[in-house]
Design brief:
Distance between the termini: 71 Å
Low-confidence stretches: 38-50
Structural class: mainly alpha
Number of strands: 0
Strand content: under 5%
């Protein structure tokens, strides 16, 4: 029986076995408590959304602010993920995962808010907000993919990125930071600012393509291995999607009445 097995293990291993069992039980209780606490917090947040009553104008403003926050938080995920893989720092990747989870949760709550008010919105605003929600979902998905490729690289690869690759990624992050700042500024700026942002989008995409070309040339010259190439190109290819999505999000916000 189970009790006999436990008694035998205690006889063989003594106090150490008891301590291990207690540690396992304590760990299980801790993670179970944290899981249920997170579920409760999420449920309370959704219930609070259900109690709120917003006008169409207030909802449009809240959506714009949520989009603003998501864009900035998504950039934080990119920064922390890439910093973690550059420094081979698992603590930074853990911090990035926490940031990503918060972005995902905020996006889910935005969906709850949208679907609650959808029937009371004008046809124009309802279509615009649904597209905004869809673009934000694309942004969140790209952030998840960047985080996952960084996490997988750090977990499975013992060869770090070369110095020049790290410098390229740091340059890329600075360029993305700049474009993100311009994007969030455009959310509250005059509609004419969209044309300036369109030019900025073209410039940053050109720079991303140059980084990709650098990696491709390095492969031909046998400077970089396959695993490093997968990481580098995966980040940059997702970056192209992120830049395009950010521009579309600003364009949709300008359509809100």
């Amino acid at each position: 029986s189970v009790s006999a097995i436990f008694a035998l293990c205690i006889q063989w291993f003594g106090l150490w076995f008891v301590l291990v069992i207690l540690a396992v039980v304590a760990t299980t209780i801790f993670f179970s408590f944290r899981y249920h606490k997170q579920k409760t917090t999420k449920k309370e947040a959704i219930e609070q959304i259900g109690k709120s009553v917003l006008t169409e104008e207030e909802l449009s403003k809240e959506f714009t602010q949520r989009v603003f926050d998501t864009i900035n938080n998504a950039q934080d995920v990119l920064n922390t993920s890439i910093a973690g893989v550059n420094a081979e720092d698992r603590k930074l990747l853990k911090a990035a995962k926490k940031e990503l989870n918060e972005v995902v949760e905020d996006h889910e709550q935005l969906g709850v808010t949208l679907f609650k008010y959808l029937k009371m919105l004008s046809e124009s605003n309802s279509h615009t907000l649904v597209r905004l929600y869809d673009y934000e979902q694309d942004l969140v998905q790209s952030c998840k993919l960047v985080f996952e490729v960084c996490e997988n690289h750090l977990r499975n690869t013992h060869e770090p990125l070369q110095q020049e690759q790290q410098e390229r990624l740091n340059t890329f992050l600075a360029e993305m930071d700049s474009f993100t700042t311009k994007t969030t500024h455009s959310l509250s700026a005059d509609s004419a600012d969209i044309e300036h942002l369109k030019t900025d989008k073209t410039e940053v995409l050109t720079r991303v393509n140059q980084h990709i070309a650098f990696q491709m040339e390095g492969i031909k010259q046998e400077q970089f291995n396959a695993l490093n190439t997968e990481l580098f190109l995966s980040i940059l290819l997702e970056a192209r999607d992120i830049v395009a999505v950010l521009f579309r999000m600003v364009r949709e916000v300008k359509k809100l009445g």
